[in-house]
Write a structure and sequence with these properties.
The complex is a heterodimer. Chain A contains 3 helices and 22 strands. Chain A is α+β, with helices and mostly antiparallel strands. Chain A folds into 2 domains: about 150 residues, no CATH class; about 190 residues, no CATH class. In chain A, the strands form 6 sheets. In chain A, strands 8, 9, 10, 11, 13, 14 and 15 form a 7-stranded mixed sheet that branches. A 6-stranded antiparallel sheet of chain A has the order 18-6-5-2-1-20, with helices on one face. In chain A, strands 19-21-22 form a 3-stranded antiparallel sheet. The chains are: A alpha+beta, B alpha+beta. Chains A and B meet through α1, β21, α3 and β22 of A and α1 of B.
């Protein structure tokens, strides 16, 4: 009896093995290529999505910028900043007192939404990060009265003392038997001034045009309301604030209240025409940056939006299509070529329109290079091959002219492709509001 | 006496089955590559539109292949350049431009064509946008 053996011959095994190995090799190569290709495609998609998000963020701010408010711009040294104003609405309930005295018949009421305010917005690029900050809106609820010993306590977060410039009689917050605290209108951004003057308890002030006035913080809010229910937070509603009728400066005017504690880091500036007091953008609360004159710049609370933006080029474009430079700015800050500032258009006569920007042009580099990738080829020639490649690219474009920067950015892009990463240089132009 | 049956695949059967396997894998990979191609087309579609909108508003963004600005203006009846790796042609017809009274500027219809994968002669037209604009008299970049 013969046993039958089930087996492959050697040649069959060898052929099958060879086929298997070649098939596996082809499969591995194919999947590796597919994997790299799809990862690259996803990186590019992500970068363009990021660029689109940046553009929409900027458009949502810049297209709402009123041309009657100031713009500040700095793109010579990091951080590059673009600071401007935009209107906002306060949707939080406003708690205020509808009456001349606080008693059982004069009650507190809640109103929502409150009328709009103007806030400062800053876009900032530093250290490869793109950030945005916005100042807080006012929370004043005090009314402007004609002078009375009646009083009530309301919650308020208003920050500055005010003077009613519509009437020579100071009015505003008071405690019983204490002279009313002065109240003031504020126009936005006119100048820094040079001398600081204190607002007296009767509202008088010796500040001349462009001079600074000290401002005060709310401690315990005490105030009374006018029988016409005028509210200092009213900005655009002339029916509630009839003194504003015929005066369309209310479009860029706000009122804030304060009390007794003087704030050293904040002050207002009397307008160049000596009529109104301007809330200089340099002198708002919470700021900790200074310009060349030691004045503080606001807002300072920045929210990080995007990282990996290793190169950025900002430009303000004027009505004539040319880049706005330090030779055609308003320069209220009086800092020469350090930065560019342009005042708002005067709504009374339209003066200043010729200096205003119409577009903000921005170019920036987005990439998907991991921070683990080292600068092996020492692109920045600092003999440091251990630093991250993305830090090296930032160093080689800093303080360079535009043509040199672009050449080095393109070199970095080719290097990133060799490493298997995507990078894009995006150019965008945002049209400003009118 | 029982005979054990010897069962095995012949070389031809193995080769045939491998061939079928390869065809199947190729089909799967091809579907995947087509999907990648579609996502690339969608990306080009969206980014080309965004780029066209930018050039409609500001001809000054047009640059050369190295992203150096060309200094082209809204008043150039035909302006060509590169933006965001697209070749863009911005044009208007001077014969159809209306001069507004009181020196308010020129009113015209501006056309922007965005090309992908090359310039206006060898690239593929990705988008074409139109809008009416007023070109300010002081515009003189």
């Amino acid at each position: 009896m013969r046993k039958h053996v089930i087996a492959f011959t050697l040649i069959e095994i060898l052929v099958a093995s060879a086929l298997f190995v070649s098939l596996m090799g082809l499969t591995a190569v194919a999947f590796h290529r597919i994997s790299n290709g799809s990862e690259k495609a996803l990186q590019v998609l992500e970068l363009h999505a990021k660029a689109d998000t940046i553009l929409r963020y900027m458009e949502s701010d810049l297209r709402n910028m009123p041309q009657t408010t100031a713009v500040h711009f700095q793109n010579t040294t990091e951080p590059y900043t673009l600071t401007f104003m935009k209107p906002v609405a306060d949707t939080n309930p406003t708690y205020y007192h509808k009456g001349t005295t606080e008693n059982s018949t004069n009650y507190f009421t809640i109103e929502s939404p409150r009328l709009s305010d103007l806030v400062w917005v800053r876009w900032q690029w530093e250290g490869g990060s793109f950030s945005r900050g916005q100042s807080r809106i006012n929370k004043s609820t005090q009314g402007i009265g004609a002078g009375s010993n009646d009083s009530y306590n309301v919650l308020t977060r208003g920050k500055m003392r005010t003077l009613d410039v519509e009437s020579p009689t100071p009015s505003g917050m008071q405690n019983n038997a204490i002279s009313p605290t002065p109240q003031q209108h504020y126009d936005f951004f006119e100048g820094t001034g040079s001398t600081i003057n204190t607002i007296a308890a009767d509202g008088s002030c010796t500040a001349g045009p462009t001079q600074k006035l000290a401002v005060y913080e709310i401690v315990n809010g005490s105030a009374f309301t006018d029988t016409n229910w005028k509210r200092p937070c009213d900005l655009v509603d002339t029916s509630i604030a009839p003194w504003r009728q015929g005066d369309y400066t209310h479009l860029y005017t706000t009122i804030e209240l304060g009390n007794t504690n003087k704030l050293d880091e904040a002050y207002a500036v009397r307008n160049i025409d000596g009529k109104f007091v301007n809330k200089d953008r340099l002198n708002l609360l919470g700021c900790d940056e200074e310009d060349g004159n030691g004045n503080k710049i606001y807002p300072s609370q920045m929210r990080h939006l995007f990282s990996g933006v290793e190169y950025m080029n900002f430009e303000l474009i004027g009505r004539n299509g040319r880049v706005i430079t330090t030779t055609n700015e308003t320069d209220r800050l009086n800092d020469g070529s350090t930065s560019i500032d342009v005042s708002g258009i005067n709504p009374d006569n339209g003066f200043g329109y010729d200096k205003r920007p119409t577009h903000v042009r921005v170019s920036y580099l987005l990439h998907a290079v991991d921070r683990k990738i080292r600068d092996d080829e020492d692109l920045d020639n600092d003999l440091d091959a251990d630093e991250a490649l993305v830090d090296a690219i930032r160093e080689i474009v800093a303080n360079e002219g535009l043509a040199t920067r672009l050449e080095r950015i393109h070199s970095f892009k080719r290097h990133a492709i060799r490493q298997g990463f995507a990078s894009v240089l995006i150019t965008q132009s945002v049209q400003l509001g009118y | 006496m029982r005979h054990r049956n010897r069962s095995a695949f012949t070389l031809l059967e193995v080769a045939l089955s491998i061939g079928i396997l390869v065809v199947g894998l190729t089909a799967v990979v091809s579907v995947y590559m087509v999907a990648l191609g579609w996502s690339e087309e969608i990306r080009v579609d969206l980014t080309a539109l965004q780029t066209g909108r930018i050039v409609l508003a500001d001809a000054g963004v047009l640059a050369d292949k190295n992203d150096v600005p060309l200094g082209l203006t809204n008043k150039d009846s035909t302006a060509k350049g590169w933006v965001n790796d697209y070749f863009v042609v911005r044009s208007f017809n001077p014969a159809e431009t209306t001069t507004l009274p009181n020196g308010a500027g020129d009113y015209t219809e501006v056309r922007v064509q965005v090309y992908y994968g090359g310039n206006d002669s060898d690239g593929k037209l990705a988008h074409q946008l139109f809008c009416h604009q007023v070109i300010l008299p002081e515009y003189n970049p």
